[in-house]
């Protein structure tokens, strides 16, 4: 999901905020490309025209020979839920949704999330969605919290409108979302520590 206004980042398209030697969207797309995910779509909007150009130029060219091309979905940019509902028409099976501002995502984590979803679905076929959460005690200054858990910005949803029967997957690793300039400083420090 890369169509939000990013208003708390000073008017810059948030997916193109640079952290380290990569843009935020690279910190998400590269692990997805290297995961077991088969088809990859980036939902952009009129709010993110530079992101659309960057993804088309970088990921179509760089991964041209790859069996996993990165495709663009155009959404209205009215809001996260509205954009997700518009993107839903491209899918006929449950699909992974990842926000474009997570800095320390890995392909291993993505594979664990997907494997967990299909494991619980095999035990309970009524499950339609999965919400990935992080314990509050390992997440610095969360902007959202539900009963001691912080949303990671990663979900699996079924291509149907309305409420879905959801399971929670708690991951005991810090997946950090960049929403403000202070978050940007924390994310840079987090990546510097990881790279040492």
UniProtKB/TrEMBL annotation:
<dbReference type="InterPro" id="IPR029044">
    <property type="entry name" value="Nucleotide-diphossugar_trans"/>
</dbReference>
<protein>
    <submittedName>
        <fullName>GTP:adenosylcobinamide-phosphate guanylyltransferase-like protein</fullName>
    </submittedName>
</protein>
<dbReference type="InterPro" id="IPR025877">
    <property type="entry name" value="MobA-like_NTP_Trfase"/>
</dbReference>
<dbReference type="GO" id="GO:0016779">
    <property type="term" value="F:nucleotidyltransferase activity"/>
</dbReference>
<dbReference type="InterPro" id="IPR005245">
    <property type="entry name" value="CHP00454"/>
</dbReference>
<keyword id="KW-0808">Transferase</keyword>
<dbReference type="Pfam" id="PF12804">
    <property type="entry name" value="NTP_transf_3"/>
</dbReference>
<feature type="domain" description="MobA-like NTP transferase">
    <location>
        <begin position="1"/>
        <end position="117"/>
    </location>
</feature>
<dbReference type="InterPro" id="IPR053669">
    <property type="entry name" value="AdoCbi-P_Guanylyltransferase"/>
</dbReference>
């Amino acid at each position: 999901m890369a169509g939000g206004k990013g208003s708390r980042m000073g008017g810059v398209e948030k997916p193109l905020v640079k952290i380290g030697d990569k843009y935020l969207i690279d910190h998400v797309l590269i692990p997805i490309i290297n995961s077991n995910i088969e088809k990859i779509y980036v939902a952009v909007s009129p709010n993110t025209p530079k992101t659309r150009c960057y993804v088309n130029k970088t990921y179509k060219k760089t991964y041209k020979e790859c069996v996993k091309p990165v495709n663009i979905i155009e959404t209205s940019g009215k809001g996260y839920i509205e954009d997700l509902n518009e993107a839903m028409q491209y899918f006929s099976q449950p699909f992974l949704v990842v926000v474009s501002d997570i800095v320390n995502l890995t392909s291993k984590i993505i594979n664990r999330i997907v494997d967990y979803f299909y494991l619980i679905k095999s035990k309970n076929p009524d499950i339609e969605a999965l919400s990935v959460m992080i314990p509050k005690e390992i997440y610095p200054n969360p902007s959202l919290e539900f009963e001691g858990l912080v949303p990671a910005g990663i979900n699996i949803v079924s291509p149907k409108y309305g409420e879905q029967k959801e399971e929670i997957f708690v991951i005991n690793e810090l997946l950090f979302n960049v929403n403000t300039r202070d978050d940007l400083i924390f994310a840079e420090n987090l990546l510097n520590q990881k790279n040492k």
